[in-house]
Amino acid sequence: MRLIPKDVESLWTLFTAPTIWALHFLVCYVTAAVFCAKAGAPPFSFEAMRLALCAVTLVALSGIVLSAYLAWRQWGFGSGDPPHDEPTRKDRLLFQGFATLLLAGLSFVAVIFVAVPLAFIEACQP
């Protein structure tokens, strides 16, 4: 029994991981910018903001891992070696699964790079 049906895999799955990364990027940088712009009277501490952004990062990474799993499943769990260049529906789906898997890996690394400053910045810089 599958938790997520196979018909979920479409061309839209190709954009899922980069979209999650872009949203994560916006949330992190907008939150930090607004917090630091209101440094005189923020409604919560810098540590609270950092923990909230860490939670957002974990949610984003989880979504990307799910996207990668769906892509790996669409690719046939790695059973078909690239290139998938035959003009058949099967090769198109295998190529799309492989491309989505690569984009998910890139997006995973990009989310980590966006989150790295959370570990090093201790307060807003003037």
Automatic annotation (TrEMBL):
* Protein name stated in the entry: Transmembrane protein
Q: Which organism is it from?
A: Shinella kummerowiae
Provide the alphabetized UniProt keywords. Membrane, Transmembrane, Transmembrane helix
Q: What parts of the sequence cross the membrane? A: 20-39, 51-72, 92-121
Query: According to the lineage, what is the superkingdom?
Result: Bacteria
